[in-house]
Amino acid sequence: MKGSRRAVVLGLVLTLASCRKGKEEAPAPLSPTPAEAPAPGTPSTQPHTPPPDMQRALSSIAPLVESVKAAVVNVEVRDAAPSSPQDAPWDGEEMPFGAPFGGPREDAPQQGLGSGFVVDARGLVLTNNHVVEGATQIRVQFPDGKEMDAKVLGRDPLTDVAVLKLQGDVKGLPVVRLGDSDAMRVGDWVVAIGNPFGLASSVSLGIVSAKARDIQVGPFDDFLQTDAAINPGNSGGPLFNLQGEVVGINTAIAGQGSGIGFAVPSSLVKELLPQLEKQGAVTRGWLGVAVQELTPDLGSALGVPTGKGAVVTEVNEGTPAAEAGLKPDDVIVSAGGHTIASGHTLTRTIALKAPGSTLPLTLYRGGKKQEVEVTLGTRPDLEGVASREPSPEQEESPQQRVGLSLSDMDSRLARAQGLPRAGALVTEVVPGSNAERAGLVPGMVVVEAAGEPVRRASDLARVVREAPPGESLLLRVAVPGGGRVLRALTVPKQ
Fold first, then answer.
1. pTM attached to this predicted model
2. How far is CA 272 from CA 138, 275, 283, in A?
3. Which fold, 1-282?
4. Which of 142, 267, 376, 437 has its Cα between 20 and 30 A from that of 358?
């Protein structure tokens, strides 16, 4: 895309609520404290060393920008259809990955624009999953005008991370290095570089506003929050520290605020990168429990001498947790030597472990401290991610025909949401599709279609696939919290 077309950001690109004005004046010089100096003998991992004056005081970020901007790329995609679940409208507090900007077009391939950065001289580029999900063509452009085709090497929808492999001659590529996001402190300076609205190599300055933010867009939320200005087209771009290291991938922004952005922390990306490169996806460890936060009142009632931990509320049969002897009301306070401060912390910690690995847990049971060892299983596809993966060999899917993605019901979700245990769970509805016009939304469960019972996703998929063009299918749908409604889904004419 050239000229004005480059500014048109569609389906796969992050939409942000408002723009934050760029800073034209540098902030007052800051002198580093002794704690910020590297320990003697610590090896340097930065690909470019900023000049001494940058290390002494922040009078300008120009030297930093010059040292890293060549590795920040523009990612252009062509998508066969608007298939991303993140294209759906959002009414919540935070804008999710890839919310719409400009709206989808049903009569033409979708074109999108995002950012990325080269992290390996072999031609590996990191970006957001939502930038490239469903893409049929990917073109990467460097600041010097060089363009290269790319293919998706691996992606993880649950953390919104994707790895691309550049095609062709990759000799002499500029590279930036992933830094340590865990070492960042609230108040540390950060620099965002990307391609907002197609404006290549745009730079913004800000600070780390908060760490470990859970914004309720995924099961493993652990975002860095920043006030560095990011806009549509910045998705997938790097967030740098002042050493020129990438500490985050810019991903989302609060829809109700200005200057509240979120980035996937580099420490998490480091954990995922080897699997994404070699396997194309992430396989996660699994315990098989339901947990909730430990409150002071709960701690007192359970006889636990700590105010932080994860309370086991349910142990599913036949799971690693059941085999290890975990019980309801157990309070897990440590996993693999890492302190467990909450249920969310436990979920993330387990997910970063490899299936089959042995993990020691420290827990309180009946007020007494115990050590338990558990062998982790493989986390099931609770979010229906696998159902979103394209497969040319498969017959036409409900998503392709009516804009509807489905998965089988999960018993824990059914209990939590007051939904039936059997049925086809709606996981995605393509904006502007027949499914959206029928009033279907993610979270609904179809239990009957055209007079036939629906016990699993494949039942509904078959009914949709076999329906004649133009036919209107009567669906009986269960909604969260209980209750049933009727929906009429029209199969498009061919």
1. 0.62
2. 22, 6, 9
3. Thrombin, subunit H (2.40.10)
4. 267
